[in-house]
What does this fold into?
Amino acid sequence: GRWIAGFASVGNTGFVVVVQQSYKEARAVDPSTIWNLMVWTAVVIFLAVTVALVLRRWFRRGAA
It folds into this structure.
């Protein structure tokens, strides 16, 4: 099958390490990534709604 390879230098040793991984495995999404995305999306939405409500209340109080 298809493989992906990458390389990187090893500190200041002058050596290079080469790694390979199957294409399917490299493209697979880890379940924890999806969970983190859902949690942080919920946090951002909650904060946006909270800020919007606070600003709405603050501007209404100032107009009265």
